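Feature request, filed as a ticket because there's no other form

It would be nice if the structure record came with a short human-readable summary line next to the tokens. Right now we just get the raw output. Example of a typical job, pasted below so the devs can see what we mean:
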Amino acid sequence: MNSPLPLQGRSVQQAIVPIVTQVGTGSDGSVAARPTVSIVDDDPHIRAMVAEELADSGCEVVALTNGHGLETMLAEGGIDLVLLDVQMPDCDGIECLRDLRSRGCTVPVVIFTSLNDPERRRQAQEAGADDYVLKHELLDRLPDLLERLLPRRSENRHL
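Raw output as currently delivered:
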């Protein structure tokens, strides 16, 4: 499997935010696990802030510092939504998304960035982003994104 995001020889710092797992019950009485959202950003403050909001919204959180570990996490399954930064030192989020989509990954991906650039927005949409959000709007838009994108979790196919 050739990938523009080679994992070999790279150290991937992966921080899994500790959250107590809670389960709910579905309408049929079955136990439903909390959805798992991956936040991929090189800024530890952004990761922590978004992870806290996600946890408060009832999600499990997997926090990654770059996109190199994302492919591995998705291949292992269990990720229901990805929040992916565009600009990271070792990885371009849009290129990462393009690679994931080319491999058949249908997990919803929200690209987020601090740059309000129409060309980057267009590139993200063409790469298969489910949404494109400016960082300063992410926390305000998070409830809508979760409501809109997480119901598809039963349809998600992983790598």
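Something like this underneath would help us a lot:
The chain is about 35% helix and 25% strand.
The CA atoms of residues 27 and 156 lie 21 Å apart.
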